[in-house]
Amino acid sequence: MIFERQEYQQECIEHIMALLENFDFKEPSTSNLKECFMEFYNNHPCPIKTLSDKFNVDILMETGTGKTFTYLNLIFELHRKYKQNKFIIFVPRKAILESIKQNIELTKDYFYNEFKKHLKSYFYSDSKSQSSIINHYIKNTDELSVLILTNSAIDKDKNILNQSSEHQPSGLFKLNQPSELKPKSIFENIIALKPISIIDEPHLLKGEAFHQYFSKIQNLYFRFGATFPDKTHSLSNLVYCLDSIQAFNQYLVKKVSVHTLFEDNLEPKLIKIEAKNKKALFSYHLDNIGYIKEVSCKEDLGQALNYPSYNGVEILNFKGQKAFLSNGSFLEIHKQSYTLNQSQISNLLSTSLDLHFEKERRLFSQGIKALSLYFIPNISDFRGEEAWIKKEFERLYKQKREQILKENLNEDYRNYLLRDFDSERQLRVCEGYFSGDKGSNDEKEAQGVKLILEAKEKLLSFDTPLRFIFSVWALQEGWDNPNIFTLTKLASSSSETSRHQQIGRGLRLCVNKEGKRITQKFLGYKEEEFYQINKLDVILNGAEAGFVEALQKEILQSSFSFNGKTLSHENLESLGLNARQVSKMLNLLEDFKALEFDEENNNYKIIAPINEALKNHQEFKDLLKEKFNEVLNSFSPTTNRHEQVSNANIKKDRIKIRPNKAKEFKELWQNINHKALLTYKDIDTQGLIEAIKARFDSLELPKSKISMQSQTQTEAAQFTLTQEQGLKEYDFSSEHFTKTITANLIEFANKHKFPLNFILKIYNVCDKQNFKNNPESALKHLQEFIQEELHKSMISSVNYQFIKTEASNEDLLFDSKGEPKEWIESYKLGHFIDKEASVLENYLYEKAVYDSTLEKAVITQDPSKINTTTIKVFAKLPKLSIPTPYKNYEPDFAYLLENEQGKKMFFICETKGYEKESDMRTQEAFKIQYAKKFFEALQEHLKDKVRIVYSSRLSKQTLIDVLNKILPEEI
């Protein structure tokens, strides 16, 4: 498997290194750690700044983003920078321990090439493993080593690690200890090493018995998790946050599509009673779509629930768990059960196989092996003589496989399917892992378990026929596989297993047969292709009502980021707003038509860009005061238009393409939809350095002081105490600040992919007085100057080379025969849709889909003729990607213009909701300049075949303003 440091993983490590710059590793104290956090929060934005009185450092990372790789990397970095040798990783389950063991082995060569060191690992599983812990991990104090333990290894007095050495086997434990002292236990000798701990999945390691022993270590410990426990061990001392919504918006995990199989004519189920409010909650389904509906007393049940048998029937009152109806009957709260009959299980298996084969055939040609995961009710359903689920799966698999083999298949894929049986004609495509399987006497079972748990690379190989994995929730946190594409629930999960944890087994981005992860960057930032590959299909029965809604709610509750779909009181409270500000802000957003209240789901649905509503109305600035900019930034729109969790039973909004307009638009689309390679001529490096130095040395920054604050959250009262510590002067010329500046420049270089030697060379030639006066401001200015001057140099040397036969992305508008497609899915055009708005007659689509109010105005209000020039057709562009040094760029609109002489011109326009160009973010302005270079190069590539012009349009500019500016002679 190929390992690469991901940018977000590196950012996490850099945050931790910056935090610990002033930490005393020799004499660790919680007060010292708290001071480090206060300094860290002064320079790093963080959604939670709650400080604890413990040694914890918390890292929130979404499942599937590589927590294990990140904390193994952290171990090496702490050794390299701070000379730390001894580490412990605590895990809640043996499956996670096995996963870590596998990861250490898989990454061994990668980390050795990076750090020229091997990490020695020790695992405690039983009494036999204590010898190596004592004689190597404890005695070899200079060895870089990690001890991996489950919580059960230390959470009782009787545990071997907690027994004193006098109880150990003779000769095993011979550490030098004064004879007058009580012999130390193995764990006490481990504590004496002052190891740094890592807690994996902290929400499962919250037991008081474990923490009673763990707290004796009294040194730094890092908690890595996607979920954190409530109350005593809740999230605090947060150093890095990559929550579920952020991970999805940054294309770091798969999207999830939930398929629910319903049975016909099911009676609505009463699932909750709110007697005080005289309301009841029901679940029902209609046209294969599940709904949850709130019904009030005296309301017609049949009309509310679309169930004719209840027409004219009302709820009279409630008593206990019952709702009494006007027809003399009563309904009792339905106790949700996910116990399925054989027919239901067979249907789920059949659907999952259909989805699996559809993906497998498609992904096979791309060198990606597809795996499917099943959660079943009992071990006996897969093992033994009466293993009905296994037998039914094999029956259905053979049946569907035979049908596929009759089709016209790729020869390599056909051969792949022909290897499904062993020499005894036994199917070898499925295997299970269940608790207690370790040490199985059955050789075939034992090999299957080892393959699932330990041999990840072998499991991902096309040479291994196994691709269907069955378990009874044994494969929970700690086990996942990047190539799980289908997850099927044939059984209920334990009460401790959340829906987010369930789907977490398949969230990781997949890898191909070379072990290369299929990231958005790997695919050239092609969003549609990325999600065609990286999609997890979850299949379940309708008996589990509200799975999609509950999963979405869990993701929202565990995230601090804005999801762009809904807005709640909790979202705004997490931004630090008080109750009055939250209430008033929601009302204002509703008044300004950015929100509408969703009665059914009891939340606010976002129907227009919130950040535009905020910046365009003074009322928000008056309400939010000093918090305005922070709140505004938190609602920045994401470029990711896909749904993180979607209901596969509901058809996506589709927008009709006008066929007559599409035919006119075809020539324009085919000419601009070209694949291009970004190239550079020679860059004048020395001239660049001198330009940056001149700008920086001309600064005269005043000396500054730093104001420190201490914040502590009280558990009982649930509020934050803030204590001002006054202004404090620092010696900014000290060695500490020189190291801090260097660390920041390294972080800057890594983040923007700049050569580190080049960045440090610039720093070395710059006047240091500004750094002594105000290091924070000096760093900020230097980084701005580097970006701006580097951009000036690159924009003059950049060029585009076009590949004649290749389009830039999948053709979303025309089919393989060049005929216009009938529909396009709305999310491919924008985040928002106004089905009531009247679009212009020359617009390509029949409905208004947009990302900003300016875009909506363009679609509904622009003129179709300017002087003697007619706009024949125009369209919002569906993902036309232009490569730039700042990732890919996607312009908004394309126009086909024609004058009275019949001369055509193509106009590409970028709409920006700013009043003036200087308001644009730096990288946005840079991308526009690169787009100009792209279209100039494209014009040269096409010669005199057509004329192509590109420009940007600000919020106060009309279309005629823009065209008059760039084409004064022709308009």
TrEMBL record:
Q: Which GO molecular function annotations are given, in alphabetical order? A: ATP binding; DNA binding; type III site-specific deoxyribonuclease activity
Listed InterPro entries: Helicase/UvrB_N, Helicase_ATP-bd, Helicase_Restrict-Modif_Enz, P-loop_NTPase, RE_endonuc_C
According to its UniProt record, what is one Pfam family this protein matches? ResIII
Query: Which domain of life does the UniProt lineage start with?
Result: Bacteria
* Residue ranges of every copy of the Helicase ATP-binding domain listed in the record: 48-246
GO CC terms: cytosol
Q: Which PANTHER family match?
A: ATP-DEPENDENT HELICASE IRC3-RELATED, TYPE I RESTRICTION ENZYME ECOKI R PROTEIN
Protein's name in the database: Type III restriction/modification system, res subunit
